[in-house]
Amino acid sequence: SVGWSLFFEYLANILYALWIRKFSKTALSILVGIAAIALAHLAITNGDVSGGWTLNVEQVRIGLTRTIYPFFAGLLLSRVAKPARIKNAFLWCSLLVAIVLYMPRISGAEHLWMNGIYESVCVIVVFPLIVYLGASGVIQTQSENRICKFLGDISYPLYLVHYPLVYFYVAWISNHKGITISQTWPYALLILTGSIILAYAALKWYDQPVRKWLRKKLA
Description:
This protein has helices at 3-18, 25-46, 57-80, 89-102, 112-135, 142-174, 181-218.
């Protein structure tokens, strides 16, 4: 499940709430720089940034290394970057994501460091660039605004609920060796649609009511 990554996000949130939210921009920049170096070292040494899903010393180290840079780089970006007005930002973001996903790994087992460099560049440079481009997008119509709000609202619930459905799909593929793309895409579409519906239900029946209740309690 995604529980392991949420565990490290909780730790990062605790660090932020208790300590790092008070950092100056300079101190935060130093922290992010150190985190970037640690992330690159992990990726180049191991060949990728996989890991963090087991509660032992090594995996906890990997999980924290994977989490600290993205979390606090995002915080730094929100403090220092001023979004511009970029036309077709959604298109550029989509193109960058497609390029990264189209080439998920480079080199082979004999040159793991090459893939480590590739993943480091993706996480340290490309992903923050995508976030900046997205924040700089210009919404032209109310329809675009509603679509963006809907996607933003369901993004986290979708992250939480998609995993078991994807497992069903992967298991089905594994049990049907040699199946073609024309046979699989209807099931893939069903998984996508089901994930969105389940995420929306979680948003309306759990996430928003709990947030509303917490706001009243903490007011």
